[in-house]
Every structure is written in C-alpha cells, then in structure tokens.
Design goal:
There is one protein chain. By secondary structure, the protein is α+β, with helices and mostly antiparallel strands. The protein is about 55% helix and about 20% strand. The protein contains 7 helices and 8 strands; from the N terminus they run βββββββααααβααα. The strands form 3 sheets. It has a 3-stranded antiparallel β-sheet with strand order 3-2-5. A 3-stranded antiparallel β-sheet has the order 6-7-8. A hairpin with a 2-residue loop joins β2 and β3. The chain is rod-shaped. It starts with 6 loop residues before the first strand and ends with a helix.
C-alpha cells in the first residue's frame, strides 16, 4: 500500500538511490520517504553501509620457487556521502577487490623468500590495504582493515620444513645429551681418582702401622729376653702370625684364600722379604 501511494521505508545502516525518469536524483537516508511514481520517480535500489568481509585466496610463488597460497581478509564498506558512486560505478564489487588483491600479492610475494613471507605478512597486508584504499576510494568504498590470515605452502614443502625443524631440534638435543654425558664422565673420573688417592693413603698408612708394630714388638722382645737377636724374634713373630692366619682360614667354611708357596718353610722367605723392606725403609729415612 505504501509503495502504491509513493511511500518507501529505508532501513537503518542502509541508503536508497532515487531516480527520476531513469536518471540519478538523490540518496535517501534511513527513514520514510515520499516517492511519487506517477511523476517519474522510482527507487533504483538500496545500498548497505555495514562492513562487509571478503576472503581472497591467492596462489603465488616465492623467491625460492615455493608455491604458497595466501589468504587475505578484506573488510570494506560503502561511504554514505559517495553512495551514488558505490551504486553505479561498479558492477561487481567483490570481483574488483579480488583483482586488486591478486595484483598486489603476486607482485610482492615473489620478491620474498618463504621464511620472509611469514615474517613480513604485516607488510604484505599493508601494501594490499594501501593499494585497495587508493583504488576503491574513487568508487565510493572505504577499506576498513586488511589482514593476511593464512599462508599455506605446498604439503610437501610443509612436511620438509617440519622434518628440518625436527632434525635441528634433535641435533640440539643430542648435543646437550653429549655435553651432559661428558660432564658425568668427568665427574665420575674425578670421583674415582679421589677414591684411589684416598685408598692409596689408607694402604700406605696401614703398611706403616704394621711396620711400626713389628718393630716395636721386636725391640720389646729383645729387651725382655736377653740373648735373642732381632732376626730370631722376627722369625718367631711371623711364624706365630702364620699359624694364626691358617687357624682363622681353617675355621671359616666359606674361605677361598690360597697361599703360594704353602708350608712353614716358606716363613723364612717371608721373613727375609720383611727384613729387606725394613732395612730399605731405614736407609731411606737416613
């Protein structure tokens, strides 16, 4: 009924284009307007002022000959004061924007290496935005924002990049593991050296204590028993220790000690070796 009487309604965030006998006449703002069709006025159409988004997928090649698919997201809207240009000058706004995006991406990405494409995606987006702003402003559109939302290399290239990254991380891990093992071996060697050093000190002190004990025993026995020589006393002490040792070995059921040579006569040889050791030690002290 409203259209029959020449009344039209323009919704919020929209503008309408009014024509008079097919010629542009005015831009109608949101609200109710009188449009007497009998006088040659008619509504050519409405134009939305809301922000629209267009995702453009562009395949191109980088400087190192890697094919990538770059996805750009363009946010744009028509300007109210240039609604006539936006309504009449472009047949297909989305195709026009897509053409400019293709032109900029395919002119900038081939100048960059694959790694640089990921690092400089903001620069690519800024170049696309500047070019679109310069071109689309003459058609009554404003570019609100341009984003590079995805950079997708070929699947084989992506797999190779992941393998390279994994190999590099494994190499670093192997190097760190080798360094840790090296430190562990050094610490283990230092511990063994310290242990052997302390063990050597213990054995030396033990032998010194045995020698001192034998010397004191010989001197005490010689003083208390007149007419005995040091050699006789040493032979008797060694023979006594020999039989005590044999007694202890025989009393043990789990002993695995073997003495070579075996027999009381071998004590003489042992006594000779002890005496020689004492004499050498005495000469060394002098």
């Amino acid at each position: 009924m409203g259209q029959a009487l020449g009344c039209i309604q323009v919704d919020q965030s929209n503008v309408a284009v009014k024509e008079h006998f097919g010629k542009f006449d005015d831009v109608l703002q949101p609200g109710c307007h009188c449009l007497p069709w009998c006088l040659g006025y008619q509504l050519a159409g409405q134009l939305s002022l809301r922000v629209n988004q267009l995702d453009v997928s562009c395949e191109t090649k980088t400087k190192d000959n890697v094919f990538v698919t770059v996805v750009a997201s363009i946010q744009y809207r028509a300007l109210s004061d240039k609604a006539a240009d936006a309504f009449y000058k472009l047949t297909n706004t989305k195709q026009q924007i897509q053409a400019y995006v293709f032109d900029v991406i395919r002119a900038s990405v081939p100048k960059l290496l694959l790694d640089d494409v990921f690092l400089q995606k903001n620069d690519i987006a800024k170049g696309v935005e500047d070019e679109l702003e310069k071109a689309m402003s003459g058609y009554g559109f404003e570019i609100v924002q341009t984003l590079i939302v995805d950079i997708e290399p070929d699947q084989h290239v992506k797999r190779s990049m992941n393998e390279i990254n994994a190999a590099a991380r494994m190499r670093v891990a192997a190097n760190e593991k080798a360094v840790g093992e090296k430190i562990l071996q050094i610490k283990r060697a230092e511990g063994e050296a310290e242990s052997k050093y302390l063990s050597g000190l213990g054995i030396a002190r033990q032998r010194q204590a045995i020698v001192d004990g034998l010397r004191d025993s010989v001197l005490a026995f010689s003083e208390n028993v007149p007419g005995t020589s040091a050699k006789e006393v040493m032979d008797m002490v060694l023979l006594t220790q020999y039989f005590d040792t044999m007694k202890d070995i025989g009393a043990s059921s789990k002993s695995n000690a073997v003495f070579l040579p075996h027999g009381p006569g071998a004590v003489k040889d042992i006594a000779s070796q002890v005496r020689e050791g004492l004499l050498q030690a005495e000469n060394a002290r002098e």
